[in-house]
Amino acid sequence: IPNGNASELVFNTVHVKDAGFYVCRVNNNFTFEFSQWSQLDVCDVTEVTESFRSSWDGISESKLQICVEPKSQKLMPGSTLILQCVAVGSPIPQYQWFKNESRLTHETKKLYMVPYVDLEHQGTYWCRVYNDRESQDSKKADVIVGKQYRSGF
């Protein structure tokens, strides 16, 4: 990492591309040790919701806060469903997606994606973000899958 040879890693301006996992290696002429891994999450400000912008002033940086909410969508069968939920906080938030009051097993990332939607994917989705201090639910997003009409049939 450029300028990453000090006891602290400082980002004067943090960018989305800086998100990821970091580890520090300390060494002398004889041996070396690694620190524990640290994760950095960065919210893209172009995606940030108004409620996040207005509430961020004066909030402790460690407070759990959703900055990108999932959006309602109308889709045609066969198209791709992409729902996104991004949160910041310390400890780093974890994610759990829900559909129609049921937890979606193994859907624990910021992005929920269905490559080819069908009528069965219609419903109300939301994401619960949590860490060992607190949890917060995103806004609910309605996903409507419409029938494809073709002329001549």
From TrEMBL:
The keyword Transport does not apply. The keyword Disulfide bond applies. It holds the Pfam family Ig_2. Residues 64-144 form the Ig-like domain. It comes from the Eukaryota. PROSITE patterns: IG_LIKE (PS50835). InterPro entries: Ig-like_dom (IPR007110), Ig-like_dom_sf (IPR036179), Ig-like_fold (IPR013783), Ig_sub (IPR003599), Ig_sub2 (IPR003598), IgSF_CEA-related (IPR052598). Keywords: Disulfide bond, Glycoprotein, Immunoglobulin domain, Signal. This is Ig-like domain-containing protein. The lineage of its organism: Eukaryota, Metazoa, Chordata, Craniata, Vertebrata.
